[in-house]
């Protein structure tokens, strides 16, 4: 059987690449033939994977298509859709996938797809895809996501990225004597936090690195991530990025999956001015107090590090349940 993995794998985005790698490793272990749709050159090289950027050719060659995680249930505003090329291409890709599925009479298995606590989907092609006509079975990563899909064929399970450690066991340890903080911030909201770090001498008391989660080769995104001049990590290879994150004592991120990856290794994650999907994740994880928009509040937590983070008890129930995405996937594949 040939399995296709479809997602946003040409954008050089750490979170999407990570999920592609997890599904690829799982399916390869099961001895399936695998094709990844539109994978970047460096992702193909790292995974030694077959890929095509022709959607018609991709669907024709596959017996079934896995939608490999990501914010597939997140709505884009009309303004973003009209003005941002990347957002337009993302929304339009669902039409192209649906057209090819119809042509070749193929179906999909969406795994760990997610939204942002929206009331409805504003893309008719997404709505059509995530029904029993085209979906074998699927899983979502937030309880509220069940409102956006056909609930009798979808199962809620905690974000699949919580299972990262199962596919990428921790292999290195930090060598410094100071606790390590990793910042994954957007330029537009980084300055107040950085200034507060300076005010309270956080850079002297802790080892602080910035983490850029988009590959430098993807220029269409511009330099939107904050970079510390003398202590930064720039994503270029997935394994290196995961290893680097696993050496931290605390991750502060304005995104979702950099922080969720950290939690997979029992490392605390503060969502600082993060997206709604990150806030919803932390609520379900049981750490609403790690959702912050006030830089003073963030620093206050850091200054009382041992009290707030050293005795952090990971939500092992959520971590264990997250592997259930692969159980659903296995069962769905066996039914085809």
UniProtKB/TrEMBL annotation:
Residues 13-115, 223-272 form the Polysaccharide pyruvyl transferase domain. It comes from the Bacteria. Pfam families: PS_pyruv_trans. This is Polysaccharide pyruvyl transferase domain-containing protein.
